[in-house]
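Our platform keeps sequence and structure together, in a single record for each protein. Because each token names a local backbone shape, the row as a whole describes the fold. One such record is reproduced below, unchanged from the form in which we store it:
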Amino acid sequence: MTDAQPATEPDVCSAKGCQAPATWELLWNNPKLHTPDRRKIWLACDDHKGSLSDFLGARQFLKDVVPHTIGG
């Protein structure tokens, strides 16, 4: 017998319908709902990083964008 780990699926982009692997984490919060230190995370691929950042930025929710590490 072996102690094989189950195969895990790669983290995918949060853009609607996108199944590309995530390469970015968009850290955000809605100040009307979350405490100032709370950070929600949307994952983004290279193609959707800009549009998702723009969406959150327009609402003044975007706090930071950092590279996504495998396994979060």
Remarks:
- The CA atoms of residues 29 and 37 lie 9 Å apart.
- Strands lie at 24-28, 40-44, 62-67.
- The chain is about 15% helix and 20% strand.
